[in-house]
Amino acid sequence: MDELILEKTEDGSDTLFIPEMDEHYHSTKGALTETNYIFIEKGLLASTQKEVKVLEIGFGTGLNAIQTLKAAQENNIKVAFHTLELYPLTWGKLESLSYAEQPYYKEIHLAPWENLVEITPEFTIHKHQFDFTTLPTKDIGSAFNVIYFDAFAPEKQPNMWTQQLFNHLFGLLSDGGILTTYCAKGVIRRMLQEAGFKVERLPGPPNGKREILRATKF
Q: Smallest Cα–Cα separation from 80: which of 47, 34, 106, 103?
């Protein structure tokens, strides 16, 4: 992923395009809109907990992380944020993004991998660098309240969207825990149901995808 192209999305926020994959890190309809709607509003803020343990699949540009920190501050929530990424981006590839000047964004990216780091009193982060497909063999903790499933699309990385992995994620969630994802494909919905989740189709973000999925563990 040496060659990345910065692109403006329709809400004015930036994303990165990966030519070798023909894939973007965020929706071209609005990177910030997508994050705030799918992962913050329908995930983090849908939890009833005031101390929320979050697991993110796909750290990417860190947009979900910085918006989670911001939401924690605004909503009097404490967040323990765990994120998985096999190919971390360097600060040099991120510093020109439209949201790179937000408070704590750089601190999140420069926080060392494989360490628990307090960024603010409301937000800690633990970045794990490994292949998500090997997750069942790793110990990253359990009793997560919210999972952000933000891997690249199934047609780009089908090995990230398998029944075995969704089964494992179900086991990592606490009772009442929530998984949100931008992907509303029928095959993904059925795999989540097979894993044990109650799955809702929700309207997608403004001017974006028609539907998203939210899965809850009961």
A: 47
Residue 217: φ, ψ to 5°: -95, 120
| Alpha helix (H) residue ranges in the chain | 31-34, 63-74, 105-110, 163-172, 186-195
Tally the C-alpha atoms within 13 A of residue 184's C-alpha that lie toward its C-beta: 14
181 in a structural domain: yes
Segments forming the whole domain that contains residue 148: 30-216
Q: Which residues of 38-51 are buried (b: 16+ CB within 10 A; e: fewer)?
A: bbbebbbeebeeee
The string of pLDDT tens digits covering residues 123-164 is: 999 999 999 999 999 999 999 999 999 999 999 999 999 999
Domain assignment present for residue 17? The answer is: no
CATH number for position 172: 3.40.50.150
Residues β-bridged to residue 200:
214
What pLDDT, on a 0 to 100 scale, did the predictor assign at position 2? 66
Q: How many domains does the chain have?
A: 1
Model's pTM, two decimal places? 0.97
Residues 6+ apart with CB under 8 A from 118: 124
The H or E element containing residue 117 is strand 116-120
